[in-house]
Specification:
Blueprint (H helix, E strand, L loop, with lengths): L2 H12 L11 H10 L5 H14 L3 H6 L2 H8 L6 H16 L8 H4 L7 H12 L8 H11 L8 H14 L5 H14 L18 H4 L16 E12 L7 E2 L9 E2 L2 E4 L5 H5 L2 H6 L6 E4 L7 E2 L3 E12 L9 H6 L4 H12 L1
Parallel strand pairs: 1-7
Antiparallel strand pairs: 1-4, 2-3, 5-7, 6-7
Helix pairs in contact: 1-11, 2-3, 2-8, 8-11, 9-11
Length: 346
């Protein structure tokens, strides 16, 4: 029994009962694939159901307001995924008459869709023999075949894609792709893979050479940047506050309190002398207090954000025009949402 047949046999017996596996609707498959980028299945499931309930068709998603889309996405992170999803839904409605693209090359043209997602949708929904290569696939192939080429190198990306394409079952490409991904997620796991029960254990290179922990190889390129955020949580005398929409960088188009970003931690005296602070408040009748001294970093893939929330009680201003009820309706980063939950409980 060859590699693909063994994996498919294992998959048909052991696959998880997931909602997107009960449909061949490309919109739902696309939705699940975008949600599951950088997201665990158990976390992404609730978001999948929320989106299907609120936007049962591509046109429903296309017609939605971006703020509604971002609000439903709140807490999932990597918000560009939601913006691209919304953008591409409008593209499909306007340029494809609501009909989802039906080939790898046309699916690849959708904003936010790369080789992996296009391959998954094309194979699962349209039976096109295009191999998927994601983290699970890299791990399975590198261990089984003994490939030490770094998976995040140009040569590695080409080598693994070529091998995956050679291995695919051209008659059952969708099942093959799902099988190898599921196998990597549940059997050939990053830590503590279940080698004793693995159907490929008699021919696995990594197991025979005791090199499971060494594979796959990944070159460390990422340099973590530290950022220091000081949020001004305004409380006017009439109990209004101020929220602003981010116009660039991380959390684009999400809302946050007025922000002073600094290159290092600052104290209260440095805060009130800052130009942004003085531009915002035209009154010296201020009460400024740090909400909490704990500075646990909010860790993103490429940066750590150290945050302080400063409670600023001040007189009324036409610039402070958000009610606290308004804030609950706005899409905000998880960091802000966590603060609001803690703040309201005090």
């Amino acid at each position: 029994m060859n590699f693909s047949k063994q994996l498919i046999y294992w998959y048909l017996i052991n696959k998880r009962d997931l909602p997107w596996r009960t449909t061949d609707n490309p919109y739902y498959i696309w939705l699940s694939e975008i949600i599951l980028q950088q997201t665990r299945v158990d976390q992404g499931m609730a978001y999948y159901f929320k989106f299907v309930e609120n936007f049962p068709t591509i046109k429903d998603l296309a017609d939605a307001q971006e703020e509604h889309v971002l609000k439903l996405w709140q807490g999932l992170g990597y918000y560009s995924r939601a913006r691209y999803l919304h953008f591409s839904a409008k593209y499909i409605v306007n340029e494809h008459n609501c009909i989802f693209p039906s080939s790898y090359n046309t699916i690849l043209k959708l904003k936010g869709v790369g080789d992996y997602t296009a391959s998954a949708i094309a194979s699962i929904c349209f039976n096109e023999p295009t191999a998927v290569v994601d983290g699970n696939v890299y791990r399975v192939l590198s261990r089984y075949f003994g490939i030490f080429t770094p998976i995040n190198s140009t040569n590695g990306i080409k080598e693994f894609k070529k091998l995956a394409q050679q291995l695919i079952d051209v008659k059952k490409p969708g099942i093959h792709n799902q099988a190898v991904m599921e196998f990597g997620a549940r059997m050939c796991k990053p830590q503590n893979p279940d080698c004793n029960n693995c159907p490929l254990n008699d021919s696995c290179f990594a197991l025979s050479k005791n090199s499971i922990k060494e594979l796959p190889v990944k070159v460390k390129k990422l340099k973590i940047k530290n950022r220091y955020f000081n949020y001004l949580v305004i409380h006017s005398k009439s109990n209004t506050t101020k929220m602003v929409k981010r116009e660039k960088g991380i959390w684009l188009n999400l809302y946050e309190f007025p922000l002073i970003e600094t290159s290092e931690p600052i104290d209260k005296n440095q805060l009130i002398k800052h130009e942004i602070f003085n531009d915002l408040f035209d009154s010296k009748e201020l009460n400024v207090k740090l909400f909490t001294r704990e500075e646990k970093p909010h860790k993103l893939s490429h940066q750590h954000i150290f945050t302080k929330f400063w409670i600023v009680k001040t007189r009324d201003s036409k610039n402070f025009n958000n009610s606290w009820d308004d804030i609950e309706k706005l899409p905000v980063p998880a960091l802000i949402d966590n603060f609001l939950t803690q703040y309201k409980s005090n």
